[in-house]
Specification:
Length: 767
Amino acid sequence: MMAEQDYLGGEEYKVIGKRPIRHDGTEKVTGRARYGADVHPTGWLEGKTLRSPHAHALIVKIDTSKAEALEGVKAVVTSKDMLSNYDDKVTDLGEGTAIPKNLANNVLASEKVLYEGHAVAAVAATSGHIADEAIQLIEVEYEVLPPVIDVVAATKDASPLLHEEMQTKSLGEQTDKHSNVANHFQHVFGDPDKGFAEADHVIEREFKTETVHQGYLEPHSVTAVWERDGKLTCWLSSQGPFEVRGQLSDLLGIPVNDIKVVPQEIGGGFGGKFRVYQEPTAALLSKATGQPVKMVMSRTEVLKATGPTPGSFIRCKMGCKNDGTLVAAKADMYYEAGAYPGSAVGAGAGCIFSPFNIPNTQIDGYDVVVNKPQSSAYRAPGATNAAFASETVLDELAEAIGMDPLEMRLKNASKEGTRRADGPVFLKIGCEEVVQAAMETEHYKSKLEGPNKGRGVATGFWFNGGGASSVIASLNPDGSVGLIEGSTDIGGTRTSIAMQFAEGLGISVDQVKPNIADTDSVPHTDGTGGSRVTFATGLAGYHASQDMKRNLIARAAMIWEIAEDDVDYKDGEFSSKSDPNEKMSFKELAAQSKGNGGTVTGRASVQAKNPGNAYACMIVDVDVDPDTGKVEIERATLVQDVGTAIHPSYVEGQMQGGVAQGVGWALNEEFFYNSDGVMMNASLLDYRMPTALDLPMIETVLVEVPNPNHPYGVRGVGEVPIVPPPAAIANAIYRAIGVRMENLPMSPGKVLEAIWAKGDGAAQAAD
């Protein structure tokens, strides 16, 4: 690692750690910000998609003639309009990968539909009403097959097969077994059998989580123009413009240099806006019509046909000594991939035991296809499922030996040098610091009194991401700096990168004007996944500031006709080391740059490594109504290692947002499917996300353990807050009513059934 990437902390920052007004604030509060659906090129047509009413069926025949004959319809496309053959290469999705054939079949089904809502055909028409009418005129003949929507049922030999040709890959080897299990892997560390034999207490439990959605406010949208010269331009709502460009290239068979992706403001994503859904379709419709085509999903389409987080089944076993020392752990993890392979089970396996130093572990992961939409990332993908299992079992172990649950976590906390269960050795991390800080909070020390009230805790881990990022800066004559970055701003990163750039130059952040560029205007930048942007693109911003500083010093030397090493720069002012009378401010040099060498620039492209892992601990108080099963969150505190808080308000917002989503996952959110695999709650009226009425003010504690592999100590902060809430709430419910909850969500009905099963609710059951 280059020395200039090492941590530079140790003194008070001038910009970092402050709370400036966000750069995008005015446009968003005034409504002038332009989102994906706000793009209206001249002559645009509206596109609509016909979706399957069946969860599993063969496509026997598609007749589009009636739709094509409808006045106002300009084009109809099906899978026949896609490429007929795809390379065996793997396509980068930003968070995860996919085989192009599977990706194409998800865009427009070719031989089979594999979930209700699977796209079958699409039309472009002069109005949305005509397009809606047209898709109803498309006649599709199906041969309906039995669906499988449960991850455990899907693994059985008698289960219907989604992909008859798919053979299970096990432990790195291709088998000849045809099943819905796409992949089985295993991580073994130490001797688990010996560890369990040495344990004084062993607890094994089974956990199930349902499918949930990211719940972003802005639906998927795209406007595509395929020009007659073969150039394709797409305006869209996406977390990964460059990844979308790559997917379009792979699916449509055109070079990346013929594709320009223009990201707009994005109304949320949380990992769910990397994969293409209607972008290739809009492009094909534009090519067929010679006109721009705009497609905007309805909320029902978003819920039924885009990538939710995987449901899961996890069997978790952990053992400890009487003094609380963890000695062994084992997990069998089955994750829903949805219609095509590629769940987050690998990430979940890397997270499940990572808060703990356990010498003997075994993790078996299974990637399982089911008749649901292809699963996608959702804030620390796979980790929330995993923590729900491991943190609940650990809580039960702590109770068994009479140990404070946080004390037990602190005793076994991972630290620098601890080997993760899946292999890597931790660098500098803040796991111990987080747990210690949680123990010292007023919340944890306070008394909780009253019937049916309980306090629970849980910790969580996420890797964080690095990757490729680019930044280009140009100095304006008035001393302002235009900053072009390739990362979509999805969580305040425009400001966090501008702040790091300003800090690097010793100027005010108000002088920096950040902008998000299209894929033709900035070098490749990976998408906004894994909480990577403030770390990786921020690193590029820092290096761009140093590049501009070098160029400014050279310019000052030229103006003064002295050697560059005779020029000093500090706090926005240039001076000559040999002549104290030679001084010039940053703005003064900017004003002279046009006539003395031209515009001064700074640029950097980085491949950021060692992003610094993230840890969080949640403390939550609940009140459980034993008559209805309703769980009310009375108080919640999240303690998190945030590295260095670049903009503390943004950091607090990320923490609070993650907890809010975790509470929804814990208590209410789930996809309801009937026996035919049809989703029954595909609206925000029926898909129950938490509102302000469901939550207290979420308290935050920022623990700063700087990442030594970043000049300002940055760690990603956006993923890990969602990880501990379900387990913490489950542990709180147990302390409130004495019932262990092992299924998510812990909705009133499920809690009530658990109470009845315990026997405390015999009277209610009789009633």
